[in-house]
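Late entry, evening session. Most of the bench is empty. Finally got around to the prediction I had been postponing all week. Sequence below, unchanged from the version circulated by S.P.
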Amino acid sequence: MKWVNHIAIAGSVTAVWRPELVPLAVLGATAPDWLEWVYKATGHHVRHRTVTHYLSVWFFGLLFGLWVWDWHHVIAAFCAGGLSHVLADALTIQGVPLGWWSDRRFHLFGGRLRTGQMGEYWVAGALVLTCVGFAAVTRNFGASDYSPFFWDYADYYHQGLIDGKEWKENRFRWL
């Protein structure tokens, strides 16, 4: 998949979970590819979608960040972005390796997508729209009631956070 689709998928999924972690997830969503450049810069030749695309490494990194140790969810957000990248690449014909122990490739839904064709844009767009719809319906953005993308001015007025003038000016603005 193209980077724009990896960024859109990781950013939208993370925005529903914890909006403040979107930059880290986007960095993680591009990490499997730019880590190949880091390997090459240090003198190690790495083929595309091999060492940096192990599904198990990103999955266990996410589990480590969620349940073992993490400072402000930094590891979890970065690994969630990397895992979204690897899962999106698993939709393609080439697939991704499960880990260093296996020479087989993992494919989601039969690996029917081709990189750069419209199918990957449709998948990314559908995921983004699903996340936006989920956020609009639940307005649940993490542990607090604060909604950074969808403002509920009527509720803010009833809570006494804003005055009547501000509510009247913004009552028809949803985004």
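Two things to note before I forget:
The chain has seven helices and two strands.
The chain has two domains: 3-139, 145-175.
Will write this up properly tomorrow.
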